[in-house]
Amino acid sequence: MLGGVIRGKNVTLRIPTEDDLPAIGGWMADPGIRRGGWLWHEPAMLATWKERLAEIAKERRQVLWAIDEGERRIGLAGVRLGWEGNDVVALAGMVVDPAAQGHGLGTDAALALHRYLFDYLNVRVTEAALPADNERARRILARLGYDGYARGTTVYFRDGAYVDQLRLRFDREVWNERWAASEREYAPHPPEAAL
Question: CA 71 → CA 11, 66, 68, 74, 170, distances in Å?
């Protein structure tokens, strides 16, 4: 499914369109982004990106957003709803254009996305799995409140060596403690209203 509109302080998450596909193709051809291990990690032809976008639009439990800063397209974010239970959401990944990195835009997009997940969808837990050497993603997720709970050894093979995988989780209680006072957009749901 293609996500609706979510606004952060400096970014907007919106429905991706075919106009985004050349930028998506460029990001997925970037070795640094591919090493991050999220979303589509291989380059492809424009026609293949069109097919992938059409497939995502049909998926009931997978949601994809494009990320903009003003008029500039800067990335993608995706989640899988109902992962390992109806009230658990897994991050399918986030990609930020290397030219836009280092300015807090990835953190802003992640914060806006999690505000939507916890306050609007009322999920109980979000989870992420990423290569252990993805320092940028680890910093963003730690800043939000993610905590590691598992480590897979030798999961990814690249550049002639294996890299471990980290599994992280973020509970609604941690969200409420850390972010509800400054980031809450919607009134809290009663406990029986969980996804």
Answer: 10, 12, 6, 9, 31
Integer angstrom CA distances of residue 139 from 30, 110, 147: 21, 12, 11
Do 125 and 90 contact (CB within 8 A), yes or no?
no
pTM of the shown model: 0.87
Name the DSSP class of 120: I
Of how many residues is the chain composed?
195
Instruction: For residue range 44-65, list pLDDT tens digits in order.
Output: 677 888 888 888 888 888 899 9
SS3 101: coil
Q: Please, what's the largest Cα pairwise distance for the chain?
A: 51
**Nearest-CA neighbor of 114 among 71, 77, 166?**
77
> Residue 119 is which amino acid?
D
Q: Is the pLDDT of residue 37 over 90?
A: no
Mean predicted confidence (pLDDT) in 147-163: 87
